[in-house]
Amino acid sequence: MNTLVPATVRDASPPLHVGSWKRMAGFVFGIATQALFALTVVELFSFLRHGPDSPGQNWLVTDTILALQFAVPHSVLLHPRFRSLFRRWFPGEMHGVFFCAWTCVSLRLMFRFWQSSRFVLWDLDGPSAALIGALFYASWGSLIYSISLTGAGFQTGWTQWRCWYRRQPLPRRNFEARGAYQFVRHPVYLSFLGLIWLTPTMSADHAVLTGIWTSYIFVGSILKDQRLLLYLGDSYAEYMARVPGFPLMVAGPPGRRARQAVPRCEPPDISGRTALGSQTAQTARQDVNCVVRDHRCGRPGATPA
Q: Is residue 98 part of a domain?
């Protein structure tokens, strides 16, 4: 006797088909990336709090390269053109876990090959060290809080990957300034500044890391503003005119920006998908052409990390 199953129940069932090696690879990659992310966060805490103890003669060159190999690709991989190129070969929903995996690997390269220096710029003790340590922990709390406002699942790619696995459309992400985002545009970056600056002992190698990543954070915040203008248009332009990027910054790119009209092109039709959940080649090419032509095209509601 056949039992009728409602369509909603059938659609919610796990879509992993036996023999589909591509879906199996995507499934394993998504789960492994989340595990790698959790492990990397724990090691990042130890790396920033205590620092490595592996002195080397070429620490300045080595550490500079290691700091840059994290910072530079971090923004390149989020660029709309790279996203469009990525969707030509892989399901667009997999970009988040790919970005997360790349970030984890680049950080782990730092953990493995970072060289410490014996030169110390400052070394606090007593109440001063305790205060700086408390502020360091507070920065971690601020980071977790800020990420939760925009959705931790989007930051790690889990939400997008889960939509791919379930063959569901990506949820629309409407722009809404909540919590800390009512006062600064980049609370995540601000929290990360606390993680790299608030250390009781500032060795020379930590100073190199702090200098490079501070520069990256300010440049990255400008690039993020440009991405959000591209995806969100006038709503984000109005937000930039009201809210500074960082506290006490009232002018320049990180400060409040004068509102101006931002024309947007209509996003391409992304309804055509293959059995694997990826865009068709024709749609992908249309998406790339739109981005290159106008620099104003993006998936509706898709807010970059």
A: yes
C-alpha angle 150-152-154 in degrees, rounded to nearest 5: 75
CA–CA separation, 131 and 135 (whole Å): 6
User: Cβ-count burial of 14 within 10 angstroms (0-12 exposed, 13-18 middle, 19+ buried)?
Assistant: exposed
Planar angle of CA 88, 94, 99, nearest 5 degrees: 100
Asked whether residue 169 is domain-assigned, the answer is yes
Q: What local confidence, expressed as pLDDT, does residue 225 receive? A: 93
What DSSP character marks residue 121? E
Task: Tell whether 94 is covered by a domain.
Answer: yes
Give how many domains the chain has, as a whole number: 1
Q: Which residues of the chain fall short of a pLDDT of 50?
A: 1-14, 16, 18-19, 265-305
HSE-CB at 214 with a 13 A cutoff on CA atoms is 12
pLDDT one-digit tens code per residue, 80-91: 889 999 999 999
Which long-range contacts link 150-156 to residues 24+ away (Cβ below 8 Å)?
150/188, 150/303, 150/305, 154/96, 154/303, 154/305, 155/100, 155/305, 156/33, 156/34, 156/37, 156/96, 156/97, 156/100
Look up the domain containing 154 and give its range: 24-267+274-294
Task: Please check whether residue 64 lies inside any domain of the structure.
Answer: yes
